[in-house]
Amino acid sequence: MRKIVVTLTVITSVLIACSPKSSKSSAAPQAAAEAIKGSAKAGATIIKSEKCTKCHKDKSGYVPKHTFEEQEKVILGMAKRAKLSEQETADLIAFVKANAKK
Ligand code: HEC
């Protein structure tokens, strides 16, 4: 009996590990955004795009004036306001990381 249970457990975990990842379009919690690889180049486009400039002027000049730690919260909050996807948020974060004050 124990052997059967162990075997079933192994099979189940293999099946779970191999099943395709669930929907990408869900809301973007910070942890999920960090698990996705962001592109700084794509992020540079986003920060200058209408997604961000519909409320205020292009804020890309703000990024190099502050360290990443100083602006992380603001940027994540803005990503929510702009309703960025997880991928877009990861791109924006990659851009900020690459260009923040060192
Ligand atoms: C729904 C409106 C809205 C959207 C969309 C939005 N912002 Fe903002 N953002 C604001 C407001 C309001 C402020 C505070 C006033 C200001 O600085 O203009 C602000 C402030 C900021 C600041 C701080 C600037 C400072 O001088 O202190 C940054 C940086 C910023 N936004 C970046 C972004 C980025 C990047 C995006 C796109 C992902 C974005 N925002 C999208 C409304 C928005």
UniProtKB/TrEMBL annotation:
Domain of life from the UniProt record: Bacteria
PROSITE patterns: PROKAR_LIPOPROTEIN (PS51257)
Protein name stated in the entry: Cytochrome c domain-containing protein
